[in-house]
Amino acid sequence: MKVLAISNLYPPDVIGGYELACFQAVEALRARGHEVRVLTSTPREPVASAPDVVRTLQLSDVWNTYLCDYRRSAPATLHRLNVESRFVNAHNVHALTALLEEFQPDVAYVCNLIGVGGLGIMGCLQYLKVPWVWQLGDRVPYYMCCKWERVVPELAREFERFVQGHFIVVSNRLLDEIESFGIRLNGQVDVLPYWIAGKRPPARRGFYRAGSCLRIVSAGQIVQNKGMDLIIEAAARLRDGGCESFMVDLYGKVTDPFFPNLIRKHDLAGHVVLKGARPHAELLPLYRHYDLFAFPTWEREPFGLVPLEAGVAGCVSVITQNCGIAEWLVNGVHCLKAPRTAESFAHVFRQVFDGTIELEPLARRVAATVWRDFHLDAFLPRIESALERASRQSRAGAGTRAEAYRLALLAEKLALVLVEEPFCA
Amino acid sequence: MPTAYFLFHDTVGSRRSLEARRAMALRKIAYLTPLYFDERSCLGGGERYPLNLARGVVESSRGAYSVELVSYGDAPRCQVLCPGVTLRVLRASNRPRERLDVVSWELPEAIAQADLVHVHAAFTRASEMGILIAKQQRKPICITDHGALTSILGLSLGSLDLADRIICYSDFGASLYHGSLYDTQTPIVVIKGGVDADFFAPPTERPSRDRVLYVGRLLPHKGIDQLITALPPDLPLTICGQAYHDEYFRHLQSLATGKPVEFVTDADDVAIRALYARAWVTVLPSVYRDCYGHVYQAPELMGFTLLESMSCATPAIASRVGAMPEFILEGETGFIYDHLDELASRLRFLADNSSVVEQLGLQARHAVERDYDLKVAGAKMGEVYDGLIAQAREAAA
Description:
The complex is a heterodimer. By secondary structure, chain A is of the alpha/beta class. Chain A is built from 15 helices and 15 strands. In chain A, α2 (75-87) packs antiparallel against α15. Chain A is globular. In chain B, α5 (153-156) links the parallel β7 (141-144) and β8 (165-168). Mean pLDDT of chain B is 91; it is low at 1-13. The A-B interface holds A 123, 126-127, 152-155, 157-158, 161-162, 396-397, 399, 403, 406-407, 409-411, 413-414, 417-418, 421-422 and B 94-96, 103, 105-106, 108-109, 112, 125, 128-129, 131-133, 135-138, 153-154, 157-159, 161-162, 395-397.
C-alpha cells in the first residue's frame, strides 16, 4: 500500500508520545513493505532531512506559551493563530493536495492535526474522497469543534456528518471524553492502546530493596499538566517525612522558571534534579537505572506512553489513577495508581521506600506484560488491516484539487473575518 | 462569453420531463436568502423573487419539488408559506454591520437536508458561507445575484466557480459576468420573470384610471426624483413604497411640493394591486447615477414592479437602465425613455389616450402570462434543477 501519514509534528521535532507513535507506526509499516510518505510541518528547530518526510505544512505554534499569552499578543494575532491551528490553513491544504497528486496514496494515516488546521485537512481528504484512518491520541476532534474552548454543538454535528471513516482511539477514556462534548465519531471506531517499539532491552537484574536509595524518574514536558510540580511537592513531603535516601530526576525541556523555583523553594536541590531534554532513543535505556517512574499526569491524559516505555525496562510506574493508561494496567500488578495529589504520590513513594510495597514482582510482571501485550508488533496487523479496509473505499464523486483548495481559501478567510468581526469598529 | 450560455426562449417543462420528474422522489431545494419577504425582514424585489420562484418551481413541478427558504433571525422558527414552500429561520450567530452578512451555525444542518442549494443574494457573507458549506457537502449549487454587494471576499477567491450554475433573470444580469469582478467559468442560465400573474391580475371591473404610478422602495438609485421632475403639472402621481433612505425621502417630499403627488408608504400587496388597476402607467425611472452622485453598475436586474404592473394589464415605462428594456416591448407593452422630456410626453400621451392604455395593457398582460409568470419561470428553473440533481447523483453513484 501507498500510505500518506499526516502529523502536525514528526521526530525529531516532538511534543510527546503522539508524534513518536506516529513515527514508530510509519517505520513499522515501511518494514512490512509499504511505501509510506510523511507530511508534516516545518520543524520548530533545525532537523536533519529524512527520506520521504515532507516538511511543508505551516505550524501554528499554539504550544508556545509565551506567544499565546493574551497579555503579550494582540487579540487579532491569537484569533488568527487559533483559526489556522484548529480550523483551516489554506496553505496546508494546498501542500496536502500537491502531495496527494504527486504521491497518489491508497490511504492516509492521520495523526495529530492540531497546529496545522485540522478541520481543513480532514475536509480536504473528505472532499477528495481520500480514504483515511485517524489515529486519535488526543481529543483532536474536540479542539476542531471549539470556539474559545467551547464546543459549538452545530459544528460538532457537522463534524460527525462529514468526517466519516476509520478511527483508532487510544483509550476508552479518550473516546468517552470526545463523546461527552457531543462529538460522535462517525464510522468504524477501534480502541487500541499506544505501544512500545524496538528491541527488547536486557532483563533487569537489580531491584529496589527497602532502605536503599529510591531512584525516581519522570520524563516529558515540564509542565503542570503532566504533574511535574506534584512530583516536586511529593518529594518535599517524602523528605519532610524523614526519608532522605531518594533521588528524583526529571527529564524534559524546562521552559518555565516556576519549576526550578519550586525546587529551590523546597530546598530540594539535593534530591530533585532537572536533567534537561534528551532524545527519545537516549532516554529509553536510562529507565532501567530507576526504580519508579512518577506519572501524576492530569486526569484527562488520553493515554500516557512513557509508563509503558519505563515498564518494559522494569521501572514501575506510579500513575494518576484515572488517566488513559490506567485503564490498560492493573494496580498492584503492573503499576501503582494514586489519586492525583502530591500527598498521595508521596504516600506511595513512602510505601515503596519502607518496603510496604515490594517492587520486584511488579517490575518483572510489567516488563513481561508490556513486551508481550503492548509491543507495536502486536498491533500493527490491526492498523494495517484498518488501512487496507479503508483503502478499498470508493472514490466516486471525488472533487477536484482546485476546488478543494478554493474551499480551503474561502473557509480560512471567512473564519478569520467572522472571528474578528466583533472586534472591528 | 462564459463556457455555456443558455437562454430559455421556448417553452420548457415539457410533458416528457414532467413525467420523468414525477417518477422521482420528492426533491428538496434549499433557497438561501439572507433576508426574506416579510415585514420582519425586508420587502424588496430581491426577497420577493426567491419566494415567487419557489412557488413557481413547486407549482410547475406539481409537487415533485419542495422548497425551503432558509433565512436568518433572532430565534429559529419554521413556517409553511404555501403548499410545498416553507420558511426556515435560523438563529443568527453574529451581529454584522450589514444585515446581509449574517451567518448561522445552524446552516450546515439546513443544507444537509437539501438535494440542491440555490444561493440568493450572491455577494454577501451569508451566501459565501452557504456556498462553502454546500460545496463541502457536495450539493449542486445555483447562484443568483439580486444586486446587493456587501462582501467581495468570496468573489475575490473565485466562489462563483464553485457553483454549478449562475441563474440570471435578465440578459443584462448575465452580461455582468463578462470580464468583470464577477467573471466566472460557471455556466450561466437566464430565466426571466417570476411574477405572480394569478395574484397580479387585471381587475374584473376596472376602476377609472386616473394616475401615474411608481411602485418600489424609495431609494436614490430608483430615480424617483426624476419622475417627479418630469411629471406634467396636472397629472397625479402616486409613489408607493417604503422609505429606506430618510434624506432621500425628504428630498422627494420637497420636490413634490405643489404637485399632485401622493406618497403611500404602507401598502400591502392588495393595495398595490388596486393601485396598478387605477394607473394609466407604472414608471420605473431608475438611474445609473443618483441625485447624490453615487454610481450604480446594476440599478435594475429586472424591475419586478414593472412586471407586476404589466401583469395587471397596466402598461409600463422605464428608463433605458439595466435590464428594464428587455422586459418592455416598445410601443406594445410600454415605453423606454432616454430623456426626461420623452418621459413627460409619454405620460401626457397615455393620460390622454385611454384606448392606447387599454391596448398596451392587454398586450402586457399576455406577455407576462406567456413569458414571465412564476410558473413559467419555475418550470424553467425546475429543468435546471433536474439536470443538476441527476448529474450529482450519477457522480456519487
